[in-house]
Amino acid sequence: MRKMLTGNSAAAWGARLADVDYVPAFPITPQTEIIEALAGWCAAGDMAARFVSLDSEHSMLTAAGAAAASGARVFTATSSQGLLYGIEVLYTAAGWRVPFVLVNVSRALASPITLEPDHNDVLAARDSGCLQIHAETCQEVLDSVLIGYRIAEDRRVLLPVIVNLDGFTLSFTREPVDIPDAGAARAYVGTYDPGHAVIRAGRPMAQGVAVLGGAGYSFFRYQMAIAADNALAVHEEAATAFAERFGRRWGLVDEYRMEDAELVLVMSNSFATKGRAAVDLLRAEGVPLGLLRLRVIRPFPRDAIRRALAGRRAVAVLDQNLSIGSGGITVAEIAHALYAESSRPPLLSYCGGLGGKEISEAEFRHVVDDLRRAAVTGEVPPPRLLYTEGEAAQMAALLRVAGKETPR
Amino acid sequence: MSDATAYRSLKDLAREEFILPGTPACAGCGGLEALRLAAKMLGERVVYVNAAGCFTLLAGFPYTPFRGSWLYTTMGSAAAGAQGIRDALDVLLARGRMDPSDDVQVVVVAGDGSTYDMAMSSTSAAIWRRLDFWYFCYDNQSYGNTGVQMSAATPFGARTQTTPVTPKSAIGATVDRKDLFEIWRAHRPAYVATVSPRYPVDLARKFETAQRLRGPKLFLAAAPCPTGWEFDPSRTMEYARLQVETGVFPLKEAVNGGPVVHTHVPRKRRPVAEYLEGQGRFRHLFDPVRQDAVIDTIQADVDGYWARVDGRPA
Fold first, then answer.
1. Pairs across A and B, CB distance < 8 A
2. Model pTM score
3. Which whole-number Å values give the CA distances from A206 to A69, A166, B59, B118, B181, in the listed order?
4. Partner-chain contact A54 B125, CB within 8 Å
5. Per-residue pLDDT tens digits for B229-288
6. In B29-147, which residue ranges form alpha helices assigned H by DSSP?
7. A-chain residues within 8 Å CB-CB of B78?
8. Is the ipTM of this complex over 0.85?
9. How far is it, in rounded angstroms, from Cα A171 to Cα A264?
C-alpha cells in the first residue's frame, strides 16, 4: 500500500507492522503524532499492544526496558529534552541486554529552549549502548523500525535500537511511503522469543544485579561493545533480507553520486536532502562533488566510511551538532576512521543547521570553495560555524529590540 | 485487618524462608528482617523490582538471596519498572504467549531515600494508574547506603552526615519527616500500611489483608538501622519495639484510602526520650547538656498525633 505519510506516521506504522506488545508513552513536541497514532490503533484493536501513558521519559524508558526484560516486544518514542531526561535508563536498559526500538524525533536542546532539529539530543545517547540508525526519509523511518527489531533481537546483539528522524523537517513532512503488507512485515521481524531475559515464576532470574570490582564490570561492558560490533554484520544481513522481501536496500552508509566524486560532503538525517540538491547543483557546474550520508551511527561503521572516503581529494563534514568546546561530533569519529589510511583526504569541519537553521546554497558554495582549495593546497581551514550575513543582520535587529549590543 | 485471619501468633507464620541468609547487609539490619517476614507472605512467585539503596547490594553477581526474580532499575523509577513488568506479563498472558502458572506478583523494594524523594513522581503515577503491585519501603530514615546522609524521612533532631551537630547548629535535622503514609493514602491506594519487624503477626495480617485486594498495596516498614542510628546491632528489636511503644511509629492501615485504622495502639505510651536516648544520632539531645526544648518538641509532636487519633484536641 502506498500512502502519503509524515515521518512521525511512518514511525508509528513501523511499530504497528512489527506487531509490538507494549507501547509506554510520554508526549513531547515534535513526537506526539507517533504516540497519538499508536494510542488510537491500540484503542481500536488495530494493534494487540498495550498502550500506557507514563509520567516521564525516565519512567517511560524504565517501563520499556522492564517490559522487554519480561519478554515483551516494546516500542517507544521521544525527543530532545525527553531523551535527556530518560538517558540514565538508556544506559541501564542497554546494560540489561534487552532489545526494544526507540524512535527519537530530533529537536535541539535547551538552553535556549527551542523546537526545531539538530542532533545534539540523539548524539548525547551515543555512548549508552543503544544502537542508532538515522533516517533521511519517511520511507526509511518505517523500514528502519522493522530492520531495528531484527538487529536488536538478534542473539548476537541484544541491545536497544534508536531510530532517529528530524523533528519538523521530517516528522511533519508528508512523503509517499510504501507500507509493507502486515503479514510480510510480521514474517520479516519474526516473533520475539527471548531465552536470555524473562520474568517467569517457573524460571526465576535476577537481572540487573550489582557487579562490584572492575574486572567483572569491564567484562559486561566489553560484552556490550562486542555485541555492538556484531551489529554491523547483523545490519547487513537484516538489510539484505529486507531488500529481498521489500525491494529496498539500506546500507550502513548511503552514497550519492560518489562513483567519481573527488570532493565529498558528509551529512546525516533529513538535511542530507539539502546536501543532495547541492551536489546536483554543483555537478551541473562541473564540480566533481558527492555526498556520503551517515546512516548507522552506532555501531560506527568505520570500515564502510574509510572505504567511501579514502582516496578522495577532500572531504567536508557538516555536523548538525556542536560539542561545545570541541566542535563537530561526527567529524572526530570520521577522522579516527581515516587516520590509518595512507591516502587520507584533507578533512574539513563545519557546524550548521543547529536548531533547524537553514543551510543555504551560499553556505554549501562556501564549503565547496574550501574543499576545492584544500584539494589543491592540502590546507585545512579551521573548523567553521556556518552563519550567513542575512542571519547575522536579522539577529542584530532582534538584539537591538532586546536592548543588547551586537556582538562582534 | 480482617477478623478472619490465619495469623494469630508467631507459630502461624511460614517456617519456610524466601530470602536466604548470607547477604552483605549490615548486622542487625531491621529493614532486612522486615523484608524477610514480608517474603514469607509473598512466597516465591514474585519479582522484586529494586531502586538504588542498601538492598541493591543484596543481589550481587553471581549471587542472589531471593527465591524469585529480581530486577534492579534506577533510584527514581522502580515503580515504573513494576509497571512495565506487570503490563508485559498481562499482555503476554492475553496473547497466549505465557503460561498462567508463570505469572508473578510484582514487588517494588526501595529505601526511604528513593521513596520519599526521587521516586515520588514515578510511584505516585503508578498508584494513580491503579497498578496491581506491591511497594515495600524499608525506612531507615536516611540515605543509609551512601553513609547516612539526611533524607526526607530523617526525623527532626537527628544527626546525620549532612545535618551535623555543631555549637552553631545544636539540633541536627531541623525539619521533620514527610508523612509518607498520608501522601500515599491521599492517592486512595487499594491498601496502605505501616509495619515493623518487631510485630511480625501484625505484619503478616496486613499482607494477608492486602493479598485479597487488587491494585497498589503499599507498605512502609520500620527499619531500625544500627549503622545509621548508632546502636549495637544486638538491640535492633529493642529499638523497633520502642519506636512503636513510644508512639513514634504508629502501626496502621487504610483500605482504598478510607479511614486510618491503628492496628496496635500502645496502651501506655512510653516517653520518647526512652527511644531517643540510646541512639548515637540523638546523643546530642542528652549530652553534654540535655536539650529539653528539643525533646519536648518531639514528645509534643507524638502526643499531638495520638490526640488526633483519639479525637481529642492536642
1. 163
2. 0.97
3. 11, 38, 8, 24, 30
4. yes
5. 999 999 999 999 999 999 999 999 999 999 999 999 999 999 999 999 999 999 999 999
6. 30-42, 78-94, 112-113, 120-128
7. 62
8. yes
9. 27
